[in-house]
Amino acid sequence: MLIRTFTAEDMPAALQKVKQTLGPDALILSTRTLRKKGLGMLAKPLIEVTAAIESPAMMNPDKVSIEGAKVPEKKKAVAAYRAVEESEQDRIERRSQPAIGPLETELSPLREVVAGHSVDHLRRELEELKSMVQKLAETRDQASASITPIAMIPREETSVRTQFSSIAELLKVCGIDREAAETIARFADSRMSADQRRDPKLQRQFLRETIADLVQVSAPLWGVEGQGQRRVALIGPTGVGKTTTIAKLAASAVAAGSRVALVTIDTFRIAAVEQLKIYGEIMNLPVEVIFRPDQLTQAIENHRDKDLILIDTAGRSPRDKGRIDELAEFIGNDSGIENWLVLAAHSREEQLQQVIENFSIVPIASLAFTKLDECDSWGALLNVPMRTALPLACLTNGQQVPEDLLLAQSQLVADWVLGNEPQAQKDAV
Fold this sequence. Notes:
By secondary structure, the protein is an alpha/beta fold. It has 3 domains: 2-87, 2-Layer Sandwich (Dodecin subunit-like); 104-114 and 216-417, Rossmann fold (3-Layer(aba) Sandwich); 148-214, no CATH class. Helices cover 47% and strands 15% of the residues. The protein has 15 helices and 11 strands. The chain has helices at residues 11-22, 71-87, 89-115, 119-144, 167-173, 178-191, 194-198, 200-214, 242-255, 270-283, 293-302, 321-331, 349-359, 380-388, 410-417, and strands at 2-8, 27-35, 45-53, 230-235, 260-264, 287-289, 308-312, 338-344, 366-370, 392-396, 405-407. The strands form 2 sheets. The chain has an 8-stranded mixed β-sheet, sandwiched between helices. It has a 3-stranded antiparallel β-sheet with strand order 1-3-2, covered by helices on one side. Helix 5 runs antiparallel to helix 6 (178-191) and helix 8 crosses helix 15. The protein is elongated. The two termini are 44 Å apart. Residues 63-71, 83-88, 90-100, 143-164 and 423-429 have low confidence and may be disordered.
């Protein structure tokens, strides 16, 4: 790893030097404010940034220093560097591509949505998707018709179908934990009618409504008259999809007619700032880059005319208490900001519980689950909120912006928990 230190009159200029010298994949290790010697309090402060890059070959060739070497050695050094540069040029372009190329590809439909030219086309595609999902649900219902309550299974068949011999077992197969499954089963046993006991479809509908009653969801972000400005920060571990979820929320809000501003306090990686700026440019939204808590307060004041302010944060390891404490300085109890903890739905529930406990240093208002498309079962959507008494804010089931943003509505969550993909996936959060 190559580590360099840069100084400049302000942070944007320092970051520009980092980017020009080390490239867009540089990591910011530390920042501090310096004062010029000899001028005391009158000296204009300088910003010092320490940054690093994994491979020196990824640096800007114009910044490679070979001062003090003999002329032949300089020529050899330059020639060697140019050879490395040419041989790795494709790889360097590929490394920079995730911040620009795929974003342009996946967001190209978004340009049309924002411009208002493809709404009808998207609606037609949505109706086709609903039809496909409905057919899939009907197929699954036909398969589930063989799941008969224990009272209805002929004695000679019970040994063959014991895995579905009770409602509790069915719920456990869906990923609902044992205690919750048995509680729901006891409730169903005491409340179901005779028709519901005989008809598997009616029985499953009863379970859907029962689970929906247990699911708590947060208030919609837009479309509620007189609710005032909402300020939402997405927090969580690295790699759970916070920035992409920010883009999905922003795109859906814009399509619903809301005025939106984007803010990022994720200055740990230059590429993260660039990624959010690209989203902002595509959606024609303002993007604020924040380095200090007082700047966040000022940014909110600057955008007091907006309906929604979405705040992106750096991913933090759940075990890094110091970094989470730093996050709390920006979005703590007195900040007036709703913090949504973003969780990857395919993670083990023990890990999810640990993440929630460690991030509770920051006040958590709601939970957002991502990567539903990578799960085999979705019991965590019920188990985790019930354990923590936290509402669900939103769900995502893919990388497409904004199509793969799902609604945290109790009936739809119940569908996912029971293994039925929702038949309606697009409304307002």
